[in-house]
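Hi support team,

I'm filing this because I wasn't sure whether my run with zinc ion finished correctly. The job status page said complete, but I'd like someone to confirm that the output block is well-formed before I use it downstream. Pasting the exact inputs I used:
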Amino acid sequence: MPELVFPLDSSKPFTDQQIVGHNRWHPDIPAAVQVKPGDTFRVHCREWFDGAIGNNDSADDVRDCPLSQVHRLSGPFAVEGAAPGDLLVVDIVDLGPIPQEDSGPLAGQGWGYTGIFARDNGGGFLTDQFPDAYKTVWDFQGQRTTSRHVPEVSFTGITHPGLMGTAPSHELLNRWNTREGALIATDPDRVPALALPPLATDAILGSLSGADFDRVAAEGARTAPPRENGGNQDIKNFSRGTRVFYPVFVDGAHLSVGDLHFSQGDGEITFCGAIEMGGFIDLHVDLIKGGMDTYGVHENAIFLPGNVEPQFSEWLAFSGTSVTLDGEQRYLDSHLSYQRACLHAIDYLTKFGYTPEQGYMILGAAPIEGRLSGVVDIPNSCSTVYLPTALFDFDVRPSVGGPHQVTQGTPVPRSSF
Ligand code: ZN
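And here is everything the job wrote out:
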Protein backbone atom coordinates (compact mmCIF):
# COMPACT_ATOMS: atom_id res chain seq x y z
CA MET A 1 0.00 0.00 0.00
CA PRO A 2 1.34 3.47 -0.83
CA GLU A 3 2.12 5.71 2.14
CA LEU A 4 -1.05 7.22 3.62
CA VAL A 5 -0.29 10.95 3.68
CA PHE A 6 -3.81 12.32 4.26
CA PRO A 7 -5.70 10.12 6.77
CA LEU A 8 -9.35 10.60 7.75
CA ASP A 9 -10.92 8.93 10.77
CA SER A 10 -14.46 7.85 9.76
CA SER A 11 -15.77 8.38 13.29
CA LYS A 12 -14.92 12.11 13.35
CA PRO A 13 -16.13 15.17 11.41
CA PHE A 14 -13.89 16.58 8.68
CA THR A 15 -12.83 19.58 10.78
CA ASP A 16 -11.71 17.39 13.75
CA GLN A 17 -9.14 15.42 11.75
CA GLN A 18 -5.38 15.19 12.32
CA ILE A 19 -4.91 17.14 9.04
CA VAL A 20 -7.79 19.46 8.05
CA GLY A 21 -8.56 19.87 4.35
CA HIS A 22 -10.48 22.70 2.72
CA ASN A 23 -13.72 23.58 0.87
CA ARG A 24 -12.77 26.74 -1.05
CA TRP A 25 -10.16 27.52 -3.78
CA HIS A 26 -7.51 30.07 -2.84
CA PRO A 27 -3.72 30.29 -3.42
CA ASP A 28 -3.10 31.18 0.26
CA ILE A 29 -4.56 27.98 1.74
CA PRO A 30 -1.37 26.41 3.16
CA ALA A 31 -0.18 23.06 1.82
CA ALA A 32 -1.36 20.20 4.05
CA VAL A 33 1.30 17.74 2.87
CA GLN A 34 4.55 17.93 0.86
CA VAL A 35 5.18 15.30 -1.84
CA LYS A 36 7.90 14.88 -4.50
CA PRO A 37 7.77 14.19 -8.24
CA GLY A 38 7.79 10.40 -8.62
CA ASP A 39 5.90 9.79 -5.35
CA THR A 40 2.88 7.51 -5.10
CA PHE A 41 0.72 8.23 -2.06
CA ARG A 42 -2.67 7.36 -0.57
CA VAL A 43 -5.28 9.98 0.30
CA HIS A 44 -8.54 9.49 2.18
CA CYS A 45 -11.52 11.49 0.92
CA ARG A 46 -14.75 12.34 2.69
CA GLU A 47 -18.00 12.30 0.71
CA TRP A 48 -18.92 15.86 -0.20
CA PHE A 49 -21.52 16.45 2.57
CA ASP A 50 -19.42 14.95 5.40
CA GLY A 51 -22.18 12.65 6.64
CA ALA A 52 -25.20 14.98 6.30
CA ILE A 53 -26.99 12.50 4.01
CA GLY A 54 -28.15 9.28 5.70
CA ASN A 55 -28.81 5.68 4.67
CA ASN A 56 -32.60 5.89 5.13
CA ASP A 57 -35.83 6.23 3.13
CA SER A 58 -36.41 10.00 3.46
CA ALA A 59 -35.18 12.76 1.15
CA ASP A 60 -35.55 15.48 3.80
CA ASP A 61 -31.75 15.51 4.30
CA VAL A 62 -31.22 16.16 0.56
CA ARG A 63 -33.90 18.90 0.61
CA ASP A 64 -32.15 20.59 3.57
CA CYS A 65 -28.54 19.87 2.51
CA PRO A 66 -25.94 22.45 3.58
CA LEU A 67 -24.57 23.60 0.21
CA SER A 68 -22.38 26.24 1.88
CA GLN A 69 -20.24 23.38 3.30
CA VAL A 70 -19.22 21.63 0.08
CA HIS A 71 -16.91 20.15 -1.17
CA ARG A 72 -14.70 18.58 1.51
CA LEU A 73 -11.37 18.39 -0.30
CA SER A 74 -8.26 16.52 0.73
CA GLY A 75 -5.10 18.61 0.30
CA PRO A 76 -3.57 20.86 -0.84
CA PHE A 77 -0.61 18.64 -1.73
CA ALA A 78 2.50 20.72 -2.50
CA VAL A 79 4.68 19.07 -5.15
CA GLU A 80 8.37 19.83 -4.63
CA GLY A 81 9.83 21.88 -7.47
CA ALA A 82 6.51 22.66 -9.18
CA ALA A 83 6.35 26.24 -10.48
CA PRO A 84 3.87 28.29 -12.52
CA GLY A 85 4.11 27.26 -16.19
CA ASP A 86 4.73 23.57 -15.44
CA LEU A 87 2.31 20.76 -16.13
CA LEU A 88 1.53 18.57 -13.14
CA VAL A 89 1.15 14.93 -14.22
CA VAL A 90 -1.30 13.05 -11.98
CA ASP A 91 -1.94 9.32 -12.35
CA ILE A 92 -4.99 7.79 -10.68
CA VAL A 93 -3.33 4.57 -9.54
CA ASP A 94 -6.29 3.16 -7.61
CA LEU A 95 -9.42 4.26 -5.74
CA GLY A 96 -12.30 2.72 -3.88
CA PRO A 97 -14.85 3.11 -1.08
CA ILE A 98 -14.11 3.29 2.67
CA PRO A 99 -13.46 -0.22 4.08
CA GLN A 100 -16.74 -1.44 5.59
CA GLU A 101 -15.08 -2.42 8.88
CA ASP A 102 -14.42 1.26 9.70
CA SER A 103 -16.77 2.62 12.34
CA GLY A 104 -19.21 5.42 11.53
CA PRO A 105 -22.29 5.92 9.36
CA LEU A 106 -20.59 7.55 6.36
CA ALA A 107 -21.49 7.09 2.70
CA GLY A 108 -18.81 4.86 1.20
CA GLN A 109 -19.02 2.17 3.88
CA GLY A 110 -20.84 -0.36 1.71
CA TRP A 111 -23.30 2.19 0.37
CA GLY A 112 -23.62 5.53 -1.42
CA TYR A 113 -26.38 7.93 -2.42
CA THR A 114 -27.74 9.92 -5.34
CA GLY A 115 -29.92 12.99 -4.86
CA ILE A 116 -32.26 15.20 -6.82
CA PHE A 117 -31.79 18.65 -5.32
CA ALA A 118 -34.82 20.82 -4.70
CA ARG A 119 -35.10 23.82 -7.02
CA ASP A 120 -34.97 26.10 -3.96
CA ASN A 121 -31.75 24.49 -2.67
CA GLY A 122 -29.40 23.68 -5.52
CA GLY A 123 -31.61 22.71 -8.45
CA GLY A 124 -30.40 20.48 -11.27
CA PHE A 125 -30.42 19.81 -14.98
CA LEU A 126 -34.19 19.11 -15.14
CA THR A 127 -35.22 21.25 -12.17
CA ASP A 128 -38.34 22.62 -13.92
CA GLN A 129 -39.72 19.10 -14.27
CA PHE A 130 -38.31 17.90 -10.89
CA PRO A 131 -38.58 20.77 -8.37
CA ASP A 132 -38.66 18.55 -5.24
CA ALA A 133 -35.88 16.68 -3.45
CA TYR A 134 -35.48 12.95 -3.88
CA LYS A 135 -32.92 10.38 -2.77
CA THR A 136 -31.73 6.94 -3.79
CA VAL A 137 -29.44 4.80 -1.62
CA TRP A 138 -27.20 2.31 -3.45
CA ASP A 139 -25.62 -0.79 -1.89
CA PHE A 140 -22.17 -1.90 -3.05
CA GLN A 141 -21.24 -5.54 -3.63
CA GLY A 142 -17.63 -5.36 -4.81
CA GLN A 143 -17.75 -3.37 -8.03
CA ARG A 144 -21.51 -3.81 -8.53
CA THR A 145 -24.39 -1.85 -7.10
CA THR A 146 -28.15 -2.18 -6.57
CA SER A 147 -30.71 0.00 -4.81
CA ARG A 148 -33.79 -0.80 -2.75
CA HIS A 149 -35.14 2.45 -4.21
CA VAL A 150 -34.71 1.47 -7.89
CA PRO A 151 -36.02 -2.06 -8.54
CA GLU A 152 -34.61 -4.43 -11.15
CA VAL A 153 -31.50 -2.38 -11.96
CA SER A 154 -27.89 -3.44 -11.26
CA PHE A 155 -24.59 -2.42 -12.79
CA THR A 156 -20.83 -2.21 -12.40
CA GLY A 157 -19.76 1.25 -11.24
CA ILE A 158 -17.31 3.54 -13.04
CA THR A 159 -15.42 4.66 -9.93
CA HIS A 160 -13.72 8.08 -10.17
CA PRO A 161 -13.04 11.35 -8.34
CA GLY A 162 -15.59 14.04 -9.25
CA LEU A 163 -13.23 16.83 -8.24
CA MET A 164 -9.47 17.31 -8.61
CA GLY A 165 -7.40 20.34 -9.47
CA THR A 166 -4.55 22.72 -8.75
CA ALA A 167 -4.78 25.98 -6.80
CA PRO A 168 -5.45 29.19 -8.77
CA SER A 169 -3.03 32.12 -8.72
CA HIS A 170 -4.28 35.36 -7.15
CA GLU A 171 -4.75 36.75 -10.66
CA LEU A 172 -6.76 33.73 -11.81
CA LEU A 173 -8.91 33.72 -8.67
CA ASN A 174 -9.64 37.39 -9.21
CA ARG A 175 -10.72 36.67 -12.79
CA TRP A 176 -13.12 33.95 -11.56
CA ASN A 177 -14.69 36.15 -8.91
CA THR A 178 -15.05 39.08 -11.34
CA ARG A 179 -16.67 37.16 -14.20
CA GLU A 180 -18.94 35.04 -11.97
CA GLY A 181 -19.99 38.14 -10.03
CA ALA A 182 -20.92 39.85 -13.31
CA LEU A 183 -23.06 36.86 -14.29
CA ILE A 184 -24.85 36.84 -10.91
CA ALA A 185 -25.49 40.59 -11.27
CA THR A 186 -27.56 40.00 -14.41
CA ASP A 187 -30.24 38.27 -12.30
CA PRO A 188 -29.26 38.30 -8.62
CA ASP A 189 -32.53 36.85 -7.33
CA ARG A 190 -32.75 33.91 -9.72
CA VAL A 191 -33.69 30.52 -8.24
CA PRO A 192 -31.62 28.43 -8.65
CA ALA A 193 -28.75 30.95 -8.59
CA LEU A 194 -26.71 31.61 -11.74
CA ALA A 195 -23.46 31.06 -9.80
CA LEU A 196 -22.25 30.89 -6.20
CA PRO A 197 -20.19 33.86 -4.96
CA PRO A 198 -17.50 33.55 -2.25
CA LEU A 199 -19.12 32.83 1.12
CA ALA A 200 -17.27 33.06 4.44
CA THR A 201 -19.96 31.02 6.24
CA ASP A 202 -18.82 27.41 6.66
CA ALA A 203 -15.45 28.01 4.93
CA ILE A 204 -12.84 25.39 5.86
CA LEU A 205 -9.29 26.53 5.02
CA GLY A 206 -6.85 23.93 6.30
CA SER A 207 -4.49 25.29 8.97
CA LEU A 208 -5.28 28.98 8.36
CA SER A 209 -6.43 31.09 11.31
CA GLY A 210 -6.96 34.67 12.44
CA ALA A 211 -6.98 37.59 9.99
CA ASP A 212 -5.60 35.40 7.17
CA PHE A 213 -8.56 33.05 7.61
CA ASP A 214 -11.06 35.91 7.41
CA ARG A 215 -9.45 37.38 4.27
CA VAL A 216 -9.22 34.04 2.44
CA ALA A 217 -12.75 33.02 3.52
CA ALA A 218 -14.11 36.24 1.98
CA GLU A 219 -12.23 35.72 -1.32
CA GLY A 220 -12.08 31.94 -1.78
CA ALA A 221 -13.92 30.54 -4.80
CA ARG A 222 -16.65 27.98 -4.27
CA THR A 223 -15.90 24.46 -5.44
CA ALA A 224 -19.08 23.67 -7.39
CA PRO A 225 -18.00 24.62 -10.94
CA PRO A 226 -15.19 23.25 -13.09
CA ARG A 227 -12.72 25.98 -14.04
CA GLU A 228 -9.26 26.47 -15.64
CA ASN A 229 -7.65 24.53 -12.76
CA GLY A 230 -9.80 21.42 -13.30
CA GLY A 231 -12.02 21.44 -10.23
CA ASN A 232 -15.45 19.83 -10.15
CA GLN A 233 -15.34 18.49 -13.70
CA ASP A 234 -17.37 15.35 -12.85
CA ILE A 235 -15.87 13.40 -15.73
CA LYS A 236 -16.96 9.81 -15.29
CA ASN A 237 -13.97 8.53 -17.30
CA PHE A 238 -11.48 9.72 -14.63
CA SER A 239 -11.42 6.05 -13.64
CA ARG A 240 -8.40 4.02 -12.52
CA GLY A 241 -5.54 4.35 -14.98
CA THR A 242 -6.32 7.98 -15.85
CA ARG A 243 -3.38 10.35 -16.39
CA VAL A 244 -4.24 14.07 -16.09
CA PHE A 245 -1.98 17.02 -17.01
CA TYR A 246 -2.91 20.05 -14.88
CA PRO A 247 -1.63 23.58 -15.48
CA VAL A 248 0.38 24.84 -12.48
CA PHE A 249 -0.52 28.38 -11.32
CA VAL A 250 1.29 28.58 -7.94
CA ASP A 251 4.60 27.34 -6.51
CA GLY A 252 4.11 23.73 -5.39
CA ALA A 253 1.02 23.36 -7.64
CA HIS A 254 -1.19 22.71 -4.56
CA LEU A 255 -3.18 19.73 -5.84
CA SER A 256 -6.46 18.87 -4.10
CA VAL A 257 -8.90 15.99 -4.61
CA GLY A 258 -12.29 14.83 -3.34
CA ASP A 259 -15.92 14.08 -4.18
CA LEU A 260 -15.36 10.39 -4.97
CA HIS A 261 -18.08 8.73 -7.02
CA PHE A 262 -18.88 5.00 -7.14
CA SER A 263 -20.54 5.66 -10.50
CA GLN A 264 -22.02 8.43 -12.64
CA GLY A 265 -23.61 8.99 -16.03
CA ASP A 266 -22.36 11.63 -18.48
CA GLY A 267 -23.53 15.04 -17.26
CA GLU A 268 -24.15 13.99 -13.62
CA ILE A 269 -27.54 15.38 -14.48
CA THR A 270 -29.40 15.59 -11.16
CA PHE A 271 -26.57 17.82 -9.75
CA CYS A 272 -25.97 15.13 -7.13
CA GLY A 273 -26.39 12.55 -9.88
CA ALA A 274 -23.37 10.46 -9.12
CA ILE A 275 -23.35 7.77 -6.45
CA GLU A 276 -21.55 9.78 -3.78
CA MET A 277 -19.12 8.03 -1.46
CA GLY A 278 -16.12 8.54 0.78
CA GLY A 279 -13.06 6.41 0.23
CA PHE A 280 -9.39 6.34 -0.71
CA ILE A 281 -7.46 7.38 -3.81
CA ASP A 282 -3.85 6.51 -4.67
CA LEU A 283 -2.10 9.15 -6.77
CA HIS A 284 1.27 9.31 -8.51
CA VAL A 285 2.62 12.75 -9.38
CA ASP A 286 5.29 14.01 -11.75
CA LEU A 287 6.21 17.27 -13.48
CA ILE A 288 6.78 18.45 -17.03
CA LYS A 289 8.85 21.60 -16.44
CA GLY A 290 7.60 24.45 -18.62
CA GLY A 291 4.95 22.10 -20.04
CA MET A 292 2.20 24.71 -20.27
CA ASP A 293 4.06 26.52 -23.08
CA THR A 294 5.55 23.36 -24.62
CA TYR A 295 2.10 21.86 -25.17
CA GLY A 296 -0.03 25.01 -25.28
CA VAL A 297 -2.02 23.90 -22.24
CA HIS A 298 -2.41 27.23 -20.43
CA GLU A 299 -5.77 26.45 -18.88
CA ASN A 300 -8.04 23.41 -18.49
CA ALA A 301 -6.38 20.06 -17.97
CA ILE A 302 -5.89 17.50 -20.72
CA PHE A 303 -6.07 13.81 -19.84
CA LEU A 304 -5.76 10.21 -20.92
CA PRO A 305 -9.01 8.59 -19.76
CA GLY A 306 -8.83 5.59 -17.46
CA ASN A 307 -8.55 2.07 -18.82
CA VAL A 308 -10.72 0.43 -16.15
CA GLU A 309 -14.45 0.73 -16.76
CA PRO A 310 -17.54 -1.44 -17.23
CA GLN A 311 -17.91 -3.01 -20.66
CA PHE A 312 -21.25 -2.85 -22.50
CA SER A 313 -22.05 -4.23 -25.93
CA GLU A 314 -25.58 -2.95 -26.52
CA TRP A 315 -27.28 0.39 -25.95
CA LEU A 316 -30.79 1.83 -26.23
CA ALA A 317 -30.35 5.45 -27.33
CA PHE A 318 -32.68 8.45 -27.15
CA SER A 319 -32.31 11.69 -29.08
CA GLY A 320 -33.44 15.26 -28.54
CA THR A 321 -33.36 18.54 -30.46
CA SER A 322 -33.19 22.18 -29.42
CA VAL A 323 -36.93 22.76 -29.21
CA THR A 324 -38.45 23.62 -25.82
CA LEU A 325 -41.28 21.62 -24.25
CA ASP A 326 -43.54 24.55 -25.20
CA GLY A 327 -42.59 24.13 -28.84
CA GLU A 328 -40.29 27.15 -29.15
CA GLN A 329 -37.42 26.79 -31.62
CA ARG A 330 -33.95 27.56 -30.16
CA TYR A 331 -30.75 27.95 -32.17
CA LEU A 332 -28.30 25.02 -31.82
CA ASP A 333 -28.80 24.82 -28.03
CA SER A 334 -27.05 21.60 -27.03
CA HIS A 335 -27.92 21.97 -23.34
CA LEU A 336 -31.59 21.98 -24.32
CA SER A 337 -31.26 19.11 -26.78
CA TYR A 338 -29.55 16.97 -24.11
CA GLN A 339 -32.39 17.83 -21.70
CA ARG A 340 -34.91 16.72 -24.30
CA ALA A 341 -33.04 13.46 -24.97
CA CYS A 342 -32.94 12.71 -21.23
CA LEU A 343 -36.66 13.54 -20.81
CA HIS A 344 -37.45 11.14 -23.66
CA ALA A 345 -35.47 8.40 -21.89
CA ILE A 346 -37.27 9.11 -18.60
CA ASP A 347 -40.71 9.03 -20.28
CA TYR A 348 -39.80 5.69 -21.83
CA LEU A 349 -38.73 4.19 -18.47
CA THR A 350 -42.04 5.20 -16.84
CA LYS A 351 -43.75 2.76 -19.24
CA PHE A 352 -41.99 -0.04 -17.32
CA GLY A 353 -43.46 1.12 -13.99
CA TYR A 354 -40.64 3.44 -12.83
CA THR A 355 -41.55 6.82 -11.38
CA PRO A 356 -40.09 9.79 -13.29
CA GLU A 357 -37.74 10.36 -10.31
CA GLN A 358 -36.42 6.80 -10.57
CA GLY A 359 -35.81 7.26 -14.29
CA TYR A 360 -33.94 10.53 -13.62
CA MET A 361 -31.83 8.79 -10.95
CA ILE A 362 -30.89 5.93 -13.30
CA LEU A 363 -29.61 8.45 -15.87
CA GLY A 364 -27.62 10.30 -13.20
CA ALA A 365 -26.02 7.32 -11.49
CA ALA A 366 -25.53 4.56 -14.07
CA PRO A 367 -22.65 4.75 -16.59
CA ILE A 368 -24.83 6.07 -19.42
CA GLU A 369 -23.18 7.92 -22.33
CA GLY A 370 -24.22 11.42 -23.42
CA ARG A 371 -23.16 12.70 -26.83
CA LEU A 372 -23.31 15.87 -28.88
CA SER A 373 -24.32 14.03 -32.02
CA GLY A 374 -24.89 17.07 -34.27
CA VAL A 375 -24.09 20.72 -33.60
CA VAL A 376 -24.21 22.26 -37.11
CA ASP A 377 -27.60 21.47 -38.67
CA ILE A 378 -29.38 24.79 -38.17
CA PRO A 379 -31.52 25.40 -36.22
CA ASN A 380 -31.44 22.11 -34.30
CA SER A 381 -28.57 20.63 -32.37
CA CYS A 382 -29.02 16.89 -31.79
CA SER A 383 -27.97 15.32 -28.49
CA THR A 384 -28.24 11.65 -27.66
CA VAL A 385 -28.20 9.61 -24.48
CA TYR A 386 -27.17 5.95 -24.62
CA LEU A 387 -28.48 3.54 -21.97
CA PRO A 388 -26.68 0.18 -21.71
CA THR A 389 -29.46 -2.43 -21.99
CA ALA A 390 -27.55 -4.54 -19.41
CA LEU A 391 -28.43 -2.05 -16.64
CA PHE A 392 -31.84 -3.66 -16.43
CA ASP A 393 -32.66 -7.14 -15.09
CA PHE A 394 -35.30 -7.43 -17.88
CA ASP A 395 -35.44 -6.74 -21.60
CA VAL A 396 -35.77 -2.97 -21.84
CA ARG A 397 -35.98 -2.92 -25.66
CA PRO A 398 -39.31 -2.21 -27.39
CA SER A 399 -41.07 -5.40 -28.44
CA VAL A 400 -44.52 -6.51 -29.62
CA GLY A 401 -45.13 -8.05 -26.16
CA GLY A 402 -45.13 -4.61 -24.49
CA PRO A 403 -43.12 -3.35 -21.53
CA HIS A 404 -42.35 -5.56 -18.52
CA GLN A 405 -43.65 -4.03 -15.26
CA VAL A 406 -41.18 -3.67 -12.36
CA THR A 407 -42.19 -4.53 -8.80
CA GLN A 408 -41.85 -1.44 -6.58
CA GLY A 409 -40.26 -2.02 -3.18
CA THR A 410 -39.64 1.03 -0.99
CA PRO A 411 -40.18 4.20 -3.02
CA VAL A 412 -38.83 7.32 -1.33
CA PRO A 413 -41.39 10.14 -1.03
CA ARG A 414 -40.55 13.47 -2.69
CA SER A 415 -39.53 16.13 -0.17
CA SER A 416 -40.74 19.63 -0.89
CA PHE A 417 -40.34 22.85 1.07
ZN1 ZN B 1 -20.07 14.30 -6.29
